From TrEMBL:
Keyword Transmembrane helix: yes
Keywords attached to this entry: Membrane, Transmembrane, Transmembrane helix
Transmembrane domains' residue ranges: 12-34, 55-79, 99-122
Protein's name in the database: Uncharacterized protein
């Protein structure tokens, strides 16, 4: 199991980076209002600060590189568990396909991030717009999976306990129970 303080930091990290970069850009803009314009981007205002833009681009590229590493590791873990438990089919092959599809999307975002940093492609909003669609893409790819639909709090599954009454599990309990079952079976080598 992952320790709780690590999960809290992992959940807080995007918000901390958002506040840090937004605050930095706000301070830079307040010093020089002439650097803010709509001439460089079609859909939104931008700041003509090469250093700030470069730092944000490099930060985005590093985050995307780490994300692709986690995706590769997740696909490897899912694939090895699927091979161990092939007969019982506890691992959804669709999840492996979804992770690979998101990996391709992340690689595309990474490519646009590098292009905007290395070339004159910097004037185009395409890379920014691609990055802005990431939350929607995550919902489309992962939010439509069977596991995601089962775990949603609107319809928690029931657990029948042989020695007692039926009770409903919280979504987190369902995920933890499934993970413990898969881990236990992989450890014992069943399948």
């Amino acid at each position: 199991m992952v320790p709780l303080p690590f999960l809290e930091k992992l959940i807080a990290a995007p918000y901390v980076s958002l506040v840090a970069f937004s605050g930095t850009i706000l301070i830079l803009d307040s010093w020089s209002l002439a650097s803010v314009s709509r001439n460089r981007r079609v859909f939104y205002c931008s700041v003509k600060q090469f250093a700030a833009g470069s730092v944000m681009t490099v930060f985005s590229a590093v985050v995307l590189l780490i994300t692709m590493g986690f995706e590769a590791w997740s696909v490897y873990l899912l694939y090895t568990r699927w091979r161990l438990l092939r007969q019982e089919a506890l691992v959804d092959l669709g999840m492996i396909a979804r992770a690979l599809l998101f990996g391709v999307y992340s690689a595309l975002c990474f490519l646009f991030s590098l292009l905007s940093f290395l070339t004159s492609f910097l004037g185009s909003p395409m890379g920014d717009l691609l990055m802005a669609t990431t939350p929607s893409v995550v919902v489309i790819i992962f939010g439509t999976s069977k596991v995601s639909i089962e775990v949603r709090p609107c319809q928690p599954p029931e657990l029948v306990i042989s020695s007692g009454p039926t009770r409903r599990l919280a979504p987190l309990e369902v995920l933890m129970l499934r993970q413990q079952t898969v881990d236990h079976r992989c450890y014992l080598g069943h399948g």
